[in-house]
Amino acid sequence: MDFIIKPQNSWAKTNTDCLVMPLFDTSKASALFAAVDKEMGGVLSRLKKTKELSNKAGKVTTLYAPESASFKTLVTVGCGKKSDISAFRKNMTAAVNAVRATQSRNAIVLLDAFDTEDADENTLIKHAANLWAIADYRYDETLSKKAEATRLKKVYLTSTLSAAKAKSLASQGNAMAEGAKVAMNLGNLPGNICTPSYLANQAKSLAENYDKITTKILNESDMKKLGMGSLLSVTAGTEEPAKFIIMDYQGAAKKTKPTVLVGKGVTFDSGGISIKPGARMDEMKYDMCGAASVFGTINAVAQLDLKINLVCVVGAVENMPSGKATKPGDVVTSMSGKTIEVLNTDAEGRLVLCDALTYVERYKPKAVIDIATLTGACVVALGQHAAGLYANDEKLSADLKTAGDETYDRAWPMPLWAEYDKQLDSKFADIGNIGGPEAGSVTAACFLSRFTSEYRWAHLDIAGAAWKSGAAKGATGRPVSLLTQYLINNG
Ligand code: BES
Ligand code: MN
Ligand code: ZN
């Protein structure tokens, strides 16, 4: 999407297909309302009297303008009382959908007239660009009828900020949307297409598209040599070869320490021998959404050309039952040397991640963040609104929470106390892979924390945030915005 910043009050001088104007719940009509009303030949004030023009939050009205006006269509967006960023996002989304339902190829959004209590204009520009850019995502890769190409290509945003500042914020919102679309698409692809090999090829094409990205793929024999017995125990039951994907983005001097992102890339999680029940098992194609968010984030970082070093690592495997599959009670040896008793083959994400977390020690990273659809228990704890946030470093935790708040891609801090960690003790190995029925998201994080003592580390459990079920089934592209914002803020 093309975003062009326009000064305040420049809309009448800009010929556009569509004008998007907020309507707030105030008794006195604004100068803006009067000016647009004049262009509309007085239609607005007439409709306001008959209450046909609603200023109720989320209510949009589409009106066609006289030929003399600088715009062909007017979309008014009810915003109710001056509200918060959450309502702003809802109202703006309603506006985007209304504009998309018209023939408009471009639109001018009177962004400076939108207002919230809890966000400044900087924040609103970023959110607006993000929402306009993400709205054209349609999944069609496995449909014989392809989605219609979007007509809307150019959006003007009016702003009181300096054009350079506003433009850079809009680019950030746009890049986050493009990254989220990459993540949504990978997430939505079925498990028979989006295999570990497919993800590896995605990584290779990223390296072809961006000079600053190099890709390395390790196959199963490479992983065996490295001693990744834990990761390999997950792939034992499937015919699909596992891949260990490393993507290196170099945007700063070589000696600058990188931030490392580690994504869980289980392209289908049947549970293995501890097989899952049938209901909604199809949704376990989404068990690679952590990996998808890593792909989305490196895309956004490359698009923004950030001056940082970033290493992205994905453990890509399929978890299936078979005569060769790992069995409950089996003991495996991880790359760290720690032995693990696999008490439940459905707790496979942590088995993949622990070897990846040991592998990344070699980068002497500034920080390591892993992202995983790790536990059903996290969905019970936090639902879909927040990712579970765990960290062995207070500042890293706070910085990630801030990035989530800024982008409304939120995460919520959870504990890593020794009392929970104890639930993982095993009689037959150094550690068990499950911690019993209580606090399942916490004990999963505690498991990972036993492999991350060498660096600052955080874990995002995105089991609830990564996709929606039911009628709106689909990947959300989270937490690409959170991660990208974190990298913009902290490198
Ligand atoms: N991928 C699942 C977690 C999951 C389940 C995410 C449902 C989203 C929705 C993970 O591999 C898993 O199966 N975890 C088990 C752990 C348990 C066996 C300790 C779970 O959550 O039930
Ligand atoms: Mn599982
Ligand atoms: Zn899983």
Automatic annotation (TrEMBL):
Domain annotation Cytosol aminopeptidase: ranges: 344-351
Reaction(s) this enzyme catalyzes, per UniProt: Release of an N-terminal amino acid, preferentially leucine, but not glutamic or aspartic acids; Release of an N-terminal amino acid, Xaa-|-Yaa-, in which Xaa is preferably Leu, but may be other amino acids including Pro although not Arg or Lys, and Yaa may be Pro. Amino acid amides and methyl esters are also readily hydrolyzed, but rates on arylamides are exceedingly low
Cofactor: how and how many bound: Binds 2 manganese ions per subunit.
Location of this chain's protein in the cell: Cytoplasm
Lineage: Bacteria, Pseudomonadati, Pseudomonadota, Gammaproteobacteria, Cellvibrionales
A Pfam family it matches: Peptidase_M17_N
Protein name in UniProt: Probable cytosol aminopeptidase
Residues annotated to bind Mn(2+) 2: 264, 269, 287, 348
NCBIfam families the record matches: PRK00913.1-2 (NF002073), PRK00913.1-4 (NF002074), PRK00913.2-4 (NF002077)
Residues of the active site: 276, 350
